[in-house]
Amino acid sequence: MTKRYFTSESVTSGHPDKVCDLIADSILDEALRQDPHSHMAVEATIKDDLILVYGEAGTKADIDYEAIALGVLKEIGYDEDYHVMVKVNKQSSEINSAVGHHEISAGDQGIMFGYADDETEELMPYAISCAHHLAKRLEEVRRKDDRLCPDGKTQVTVEYDDGKLARIDTILVSSQHREDVTQEELKELIMNEVIRPVVDEKLIDENTKYLINPSGSFVVGGSWGDSGTTGRKIVVDTYGGYAPIGGGCFSSKDPTKVDRSAAYYARYVCRNIVANGLAHKCQLELSYAIGEPKPLSVTVDTFGTSSYSNEQLLDIIEKNFDFSVANIIKELDLERPIYRLTTNYGHFGKKDLPWEQFKKLVF
After folding, report:
1. More confident residue, 176 or 100
2. How far apart are the C-alpha atoms of 94 and 70, rounded to whole Å?
3. Residue 42 CA neighbour count, 13 Å, CB half
4. CB atoms within 10 A of CB 308
5. pLDDT tens-digit profile of 286-297?
6. Element (H, E) at 176
7. How confident is the model over 21-39, as a mean pLDDT?
8. Which residues are within 8 A (CB) of 327 and not within 5 positions of it... i.e. 6 or more apart?
9. With contact defined as beta carbons under 8 Å apart, do 269 and 306 qualify?
10. Please, what's the largest Cα pairwise distance for the chain?
11. What is the tens place of the pLDDT at every residue in 228-248?
């Protein structure tokens, strides 16, 4: 038996990078709500009480950037006073021209990856799926129990035997908390209210390790304990390191930015290769050039888990999917304010998102 360990992490909405992601996606959603054809790339950075909102916007929408940023902080649960600086310019006319000529085209060059496997019901690798569920549960508990505060992280290490998921080796949860909470009280709370309700008991054994706030006290969190910037959690946002990631982040970008939309479509393709029973694992790589409406390359790999060759699967993919930027936007209906739904706990594996829907393949 060949043993292998793999680890993935997640974070709560109170993590400073995720604060910035949610500000960016809230701005994008407001732009699309007013003007579905908005071209947006407005990001945020936060440190202590200062929020910087900056980037490019090509939109008819009237956006109150300061109000959105402050609203996000309040919604998450931070009640300190914050100051917002805004530096948002119009989108470059050269980029706008490249995107909008004769047919909707890619807003930049880049590579994008999609992935799916059948380890979980949501067709995601177990480690990242479990880490997300733990982080989401941590947030749910925090919103009901004022002993916990918004910032938090989770991490899950799983063990494989001969390529098969065998057990959970380690679960790590770190949560910001009130100063008067003891470490013993915190560990009992997180074990009983966060870990046990989430983790599959069949994957737990007597050797599974639990690390709860291993650094000890975690009172100072959020932007007061660290800085945050949009787009720094791209591994958390995708497949937890289990599959390659492309060169760009997701949050803040409108669907003409293929870093985002084509990565969603690549997941859509892989998910449906697995959901249609054509493979146990599927990975897709796409590449685009700025100003070009269709990808330069489409590459599929099922890691020997399919009865079809990669060439046969590529033929099936080409018969069932259209990778042009215009079709991606149309088929997934991406010019609408859905992006706040993607920000936290992964952009993939959420059943209500359009790229997570089942499509019957014809072959």
Report:
1. 176
2. 32
3. 35
4. 16
5. 999 998 889 999
6. strand 164-177
7. 97
8. none
9. no
10. 64
11. 999 999 999 999 999 999 978
